[in-house]
Amino acid sequence: MNLSLNNIEHLLTTSDPTAIDNLFAEACRVRDEVYGRKVFMRGLIEITNHCKNNCLYCGIRRDADTRRYRLTKEQILDCCRTGRKLGFRTFVLQGGEDGWFTDELVCDIVRSIKREFPDCAVTLSLGERGRESFARLREAGADRYLLRHETADAAHYAHLHPAEMSFEHRMQCLRDLRELGFQVGAGFMVGSPGQSIETLKKDLLFIADFRPEMVGIGPFIPAAGTPFENERAGSVELTLRLLAIIRILHPHVLLPATTALGTLHPTGRERAVMAGANVVMPNLSPQDTRALYSIYNNKLSTGSEAAESAADIRLRMKAIGMEVPEDRGDYLN
Ligand code: SAH
């Protein structure tokens, strides 16, 4: 399939259903050629909702009036124990930018997870840190790092973030992570305030050029108590088209069907897989802290148990003809 910039613009805006069906079919063909009909599971553990940043879209921003929590090392290990039994071979530790989680503490947690579960991958998603810090985390055994670039357009970045945050620093973090040997995840929200076809083209060019091992995209969903609380949510349909385009531009990418898609549409994650996605990230966080990691409104399965989320997503994937292997699901070169 020819994906010139003109054609991409057409695919993002057309109302021709045949063109879109062909796009999704081509994305699935490309994915199946590289990874087969497999969807890899990652267990998401939300370790803290404390954050020193004030991103305008995020429900756990510094100024949000919300109850804060942190998991202890032992609670995090317990989540991994539950997850390992449920067949997970990747644990993703995500959180706000929380100074409590010093390099020393995160390294200790990573080492403990790797010691107890040597067959599992550890992914961190703890925001921006310095290169030295990333180097220590890598040294401790972390395999992957997720840090969405959020937008590849500097002016749009400034529209989404307070002045003290910098587009350049975020991009520098991604380059540092790559150089230190992490499998790197970038990504962006679809339909964030101020986004346009032009900024989306820049996101796609960035992905085609940097070739992150993972790309996380999901619709923007307004979060109560944030400056963007009255903005419109992003479009599920546009998110699906972008997933398919990213798959075709970067056939080897690991592409999650995100929780945000599942939140906006009852079968959003299935539709994402039918548009070329191949990763799902069920929640392994303790039941009582899930509702507190409220980065946006009505986040999916806030009350359910880990086992429930995992079983539910497995059934959903099998129902659309995908295997769900008990596998780390590493990037294939
Ligand atoms: N502090 C970490 C993790 C952030 S949460 C970091 O900075 O990387 C993971 C992702 O959730 C963010 O990168 C952002 O793209 C997404 N997110 C935050 N608020 C959102 C919202 N209101 N709607 C949809 N996605 C959101």
Structure description:
By secondary structure, the protein is of the alpha/beta class. The chain has one domain: TIM Barrel (Alpha-Beta Barrel). The protein has 13 helices and eight strands. The strands form two sheets. It has a six-stranded parallel beta sheet with strand order 2-3-4-5-6-7. Strand 2, helix 3 and strand 3 form a beta-alpha-beta unit. Helix 3 runs parallel beside helix 4 and helix 4 runs parallel beside helix 5. The radius of gyration is 18 Å and the shape is globular. The protein starts with a helix and ends in a 14-residue tail after the last helix. The protein binds S-adenosyl-L-homocysteine (SAH).
Q: What descriptors fit this protein?
A:
single chain, 333 residues, alpha/beta, TIM Barrel, six-stranded parallel beta sheet, two-stranded parallel ribbon, 8 strands, 43% helix, globular, binds S-adenosyl-L-homocysteine
Short description:
By secondary structure, this protein is α/β, with parallel strands linked by helices.
Rg over CA atoms: 18 Å
* CATH class division: Alpha Beta
Strand-pairing-aware structural class: alpha/beta
Percent strand: 5-15%
Q: Could you spell the SSE succession in H and E letters?
A: HHEEHEHEHEHHEHEHHHEHH
Number of strands: 8
- The fold-level CATH name is TIM Barrel
| Distinct ligand kinds | S-adenosyl-L-homocysteine
Strand order of the largest sheet: 2-3-4-5-6-7
Integer average pLDDT: 97
Number of helices: 13
What is the distance, rounded to the nearest whole angstrom, between the alpha carbons of the first and last residues?
A: 22 Å
The geometry reads as: globular
**Multimerization state:** single chain
CATH architecture term = Alpha-Beta Barrel
Give the count of structural domains. Answer: 1
**In CATH, what is the homologous superfamily?**
Aldolase class I
